[in-house]
Amino acid sequence: MRDVKYLASACKNTNAWRAVLLTTLPLVILWALIQHTFPLSRPPVEVGCANRPIRITDIYVIHSYWSKDRKELAPGICRWLAEHGGPLADVPCTLAPGFWASAAPRSAILDLIRQRVVAPESHARPLGWYTKLLYRFHVSGAAALFDEQEQPLSLSYLGIAAVNVMAQSNWTAAMTRQGVPPRDRVNRHLLLIEDDAELNEERVAMLQRTVAQLDPCYDMVGLDYKENFCSLQWLKDGLASWFLPAAWRTSPHLVRARLAFSRTTGLLFSYKGALRIQSAMPVTRELDLWYRDLITDGLLRVYVTCPRVVGIMGLPTVT
Fold it and tell me: Residue 278, Cα to own-chain centre: how many angstroms?
């Protein structure tokens, strides 16, 4: 009798798994066909990948020059890197002026819109079908930078978006002014950090280990990602610690971002990635979520580090 019950239970389990398989398999096949026929999107800029070992060639630090509490932070980061940055000590460190949104005249904000740096949502690039679906079902959401009368809705969001993308634009434009041959630009990489970033010798060492394992076709790396994004990686690390010696385990890990992205305290860009971002401008919503939408649409190949490489002081945002 016990054997009969066991066989009946086994049959039920088998039938349950068969039902799950028969239900999900057609959906997987349908998803693959849709992806093949209607890809999320196609990158607007095709530039070659790095063809030499990746190394950081330029550092930009966002400079809140108007803030009494923060105006010395960015110069201090450049000085610290020159003295204690190890392999980064000889990398040019440039102060990228922040955008003082609260003091900016109306004409300066309109200039940003005319230059397609930032803009209302009516100027946004068309979203891919999958991203539209996420917004429609309220899986995704983001705060707009402007209302339709081109009035800023958030000065802090406006300032962060403007300075971040303008720094990238200035970086790529500087290569043109300096006469860097186009074939060499694919091997240039920009470390862009905000002035409230925390760095020390161990974080610099972690950054170098991150760079050493980078995909040569990456576009952007988030260096200060939220800890909850790394929960699965921590589980994998915990399991690996049972089977692998410490010398065989790498840290930090690079995790591909596909549907989520947040924080911009520390970012690493390839030349290809910076051009792709510029081709998708203007920024129309809070910056990290605008990046998220580019990722979801398949326009950017983005990774994040687990654990975070760049620390955050947590200072109040200045506008």
Answer: 14
pTM for the model:
0.83
C-alpha dist (Å) from residue 78 to 70, 81, 193, 263: 14, 5, 11, 21
Is the bond leading into 307 cis (omega within 30 degrees of zero)? yes
Question: How large is the average pLDDT for residues 288-296?
Answer: 96
**Which amino acid is it at 62?**
I
Which runs of consecutive H residues, i.e. helices, occur in the chain? 2-37, 73-84, 106-114, 129-136, 155-177, 182-185, 201-212, 231-243, 271-280, 287-296
Nearest to 255 by CA among 289, 288, 218: 218
**Residues 241-284: tens digit of each pLDDT:** 555 555 554 668 899 998 888 889 999 999 999 999 999 999 99
253-257 β-sheet, strand order: 93-97, 58-63, 189-193, 266-270, 220-222, 302-306, 253-257
Collect all residues with Cβ–Cβ distance below 8 Å to 224 and sequence separation of at least 6: 197, 263, 264, 265, 266, 308, 309, 310, 311, 312
- Give the span between the Cα atoms of 40 and 132, in whole angstroms: 11
Q: Which domains does the chain have, with CATH numbers?
A: 58-312 (3.90.550)
Kindly compute the dihedral angle of the four CA atoms of residues 266, 269, 275, 277, in this order, to the nearest 10 degrees. -40
